[in-house]
Specification:
The complex is a heterodimer of chains A (325) and B (304). Chain A is α/β, with parallel strands linked by helices. In chain A, 32% of the residues lie in helices and 20% in strands. Chain A has a 9-stranded mixed sheet with strand order 1-2-3-5-4-6-7-8-9, with helices on both faces. By secondary structure, chain B is of the alpha/beta class. Chain B has one domain (6-26, 67-79, 95-285): Rossmann fold. Chain B is 32% helix and 19% strand. Chain B is built from 9 helices and 9 strands. The chains are: A alpha/beta (325), B alpha/beta (304). At the A-B interface, helix 2, helix 5 and helix 6 of A face helix 6 and helix 9 of B.
């Protein structure tokens, strides 16, 4: 590419397949047919005076058992009910223990979709590798199950008795941002707000053309080796492209990006904003890369989530803790 | 704070050197066509480290005769290791070390995250991170001996584990230290609840009686003790508003170094800082700078 225009003037090449909604209905039917059987195991050695830490397991699409971390305020620190928060991981990072969010008053799940550590005994595509694993068929593509695992996190949050199901939000950057978009779109009746940075899986093929950085570089590598599969690849990823899911999102969104992001090109974030129908606050940082201005943005994220999810603060703690808790 | 004596530290590191010297690296290079391009060839490397553990690396060699400048990325504290940025791979031999426990070197030991920082931490000889530093030194030896590498133009990028490598195997021209990890680690842990440092807090909450043993072990890995052995030009990130990046924080380490380090005063604009590091490193190991920032042009609607 020789000329790169202004990111807000970028015209995406992504088109929506005619059977896009049918495809996702079928995935949802597969999830519905699979009881999620959540199991919580308390981890005292990682708990603190304010926060209880649990290892969470649940069953997802195709019967895979998925792991996650679950952190919630201790009732003596803060009484339930709590707003729920799904914290989604980046592409190469391992799922975080969202202890700091629990300390702020959230029941928070740090998701580990299939392939991440502790969720990789039945499926392990390797890194690099996930982005192009089985990429020539939408029905077997890696992200079909990966997205389903993220959706299940919202289902689990809804089912936890200490969570107020009317106050569930999502948060993540990069791939975590993409999964926040996916869950906001496909659980639009549940997700009340989304804080998203540098969204990945948004304009797959445009991004691969705009960058040579991983993870999108995996697509370039794949097509260097198998150029004849370009049309198949393009078709598959169109079913998973967050640009095609965006119109389903109704929750208010805080979106922040780096205007010099070489990993998830900022152009695709502008294309995303164009396709959103709900409120979207966009903060674009000059000179910022994939970190998307997090140095300045994190206090805004906390304020945004607090505004929409209304966690109680420790100063409002009730001292009268119910015995049954 | 519990710490080790100079003699104990010297002996512990000498033990690592002895263990490495007894085991030949026996590197094996396998070409990876998928991750190669018109600019470079990628190889998956396997090599033997202490405890007879087979570790791995991504080794990337630019097309051409060479020898080339070389950059080693020391292991980060996470499971996944990916190849270096494309722009580096075009210009230099790059090696991304996959130490024991990380994906690609996770048999027989698959590290848990969190968990990898505290496995056998009370016993310095069995502490898993003893193996990790040995793995990194081993990888440096393999890279240094590669025929495509110009040994006078070698650099490291990573946390202060890179300083430990230089203390044991001087030869790097330059080191870009991306952040403190082993340097004053207990103090960092006391200031944060973020992982991986929180692993130390978790451990000491759970086993408070082990505090002295833990601090003694961590002290062995603090680069401050052997800082006078550092010979490379060093670039630190600096932020006078951060208690773990300001001048006061670095003072004990810098005070013992025989070379005067350089500093990148962070703008917190990631790509601006990245390009500044690239310029510094390119100057150190004599290669063309390759900034990743770009200036958009006002051309109206556009697409790819």
């Amino acid at each position: 590419m020789t000329v790169r225009g202004r990111p807000e003037h970028f015209v995406s090449s992504v088109t929506k397949p005619d059977d896009f909604d049918d495809f996702w209905e079928e995935v949802e039917a597969g999830l519905d047919a699979q009881p999620f059987e959540p199991e919580l195991r308390h981890i005292p050695e990682r708990s603190t005076p304010e926060v209880d830490v649990y290892e969470l397991h649940y069953v997802s699409l195709d019967g895979l058992r998925i792991a996650a971390w679950y952190c919630r305020p201790k009732p003596e620190y803060l009484q339930p009910p709590y707003p729920g928060l799904a914290v989604f991981p980046g592409y190469v990072s391992e799922p975080t223990l969202p202890k700091s969010w629990a300390k702020l008053g959230y029941s928070a799940i740090g998701a580990a979709p299939r392939g991440k550590l502790r969720s990789n005994s039945q499926y392990n595509p390797g890194y690099p590798g996930l982005l192009v694993d089985r990429i020539t068929d939408k029905n077997t593509y890696a992200y079909r199950g990966f997205y389903a695992d993220a959706l299940r996190v919202i289902d689990v949050l809804q089912a936890l008795p200490e969570v107020d199901a009317s106050r569930i939000g999502v948060f993540g950057g990069s791939q975590g941002g993409a999964l926040s978009l996916v869950t906001s779109a496909l659980r639009a009746d549940v997700v009340k707000c989304a804080a998203v940075s540098a969204p990945y899986l948004t304009g797959f093929m445009d991004s691969a053309a705009l960058t040579r950085s991983y993870p999108y570089e995996e697509i370039n590598e794949y097509l260097r080796l198998y150029p004849e599969r370009e049309a198949q690849v393009r078709e598959t990823v169109s079913y998973f492209d967050c640009l095609n899911l965006a119109p389903k999102i109704t929750a208010p969104m805080l979106l922040y990006i780096g205007l010099a992001d070489d990993i998830c090109p900022p152009e695709t974030a502008y294309a995303l904003r164009e396709r959103l129908t709900g409120d979207c606050i966009l903060h674009a940082y000059e000179g910022a890369g994939h970190e998307a201005g997090v140095y300045w943005e994190m206090p805004k994220v906390e304020a945004f989530l607090a505004e929409h999810l209304q966690p109680r603060t420790p100063s409002k703690v009730d001292t009268d803790i119910p015995e049954e808790w | 704070m519990a710490s080790t004596t100079t003699d104990t530290t010297t002996q512990w590191w000498a033990g690592i050197d002895d263990d490495l010297s007894r085991l030949p690296a026996k590197p094996e290079f396998t070409h990876d066509a998928l991750r190669s391009s018109e600019h470079f060839d990628m190889y998956r490397v396997r090599m033997t480290s202490v405890d007879n553990y087979v570790i791995a690396a991504w080794l990337n060699i630019p097309k051409g005769e060479g020898p080339f400048p070389a950059v080693m990325y020391t292991p980060t504290h996470m499971s996944v290791v990916t190849p270096a940025p494309y722009e580096f791979r075009m210009r230099a031999v790059t090696m991304n070390v996959i130490s024991r426990g990380q994906r690609g070197a996770d048999k027989p030991y698959a590290a848990a995250f969190p968990g990898h920082l505290t496995v056998d931490i009370e016993d310095p000889q069995r502490y898993v991170q003893r193996g990790v530093v040995a793995d990194t030194i081993r990888a440096w030896e393999v890279l240094r001996d590669h025929p495509k590498v110009d040994p006078d133009r070698m650099a490291m990028i990573g946390n202060d584990l890179a300083l430990l490598v230089d203390e044991r195997r001087p030869g790097a021209k330059a080191i870009h230290v991306t952040g403190s990890f082993w340097y004053r680690l207990p103090e960092i842990a006391a200031k944060t609840d973020m992982y991986p440092f929180e692993e130390i807090n978790d451990y000491l909450r759970w086993r408070p009686e082990a505090k002295d043993a833990v601090l003694r072990t961590l002290s062995l890995l603090d680069p401050v003790h052997q800082a006078d052995r550092i010979r490379a030009n060093v670039l630190f990130h600096r932020d006078q508003d951060s208690p773990v990046l300001d001048d006061e924080w670095f003072a004990p380490l810098v005070g013992r170094m025989q070379v005067t380090p350089s500093y990148l005063d962070m703008t917190h604009q990631g790509q601006v800082d990245y390009d500044a590091v690239d310029a510094w490193l390119s100057n150190q190991i004599v290669m063309e700078p390759f900034p990743r920032s770009w200036t958009p042009e006002d051309i109206g609607p556009w697409s790819v």
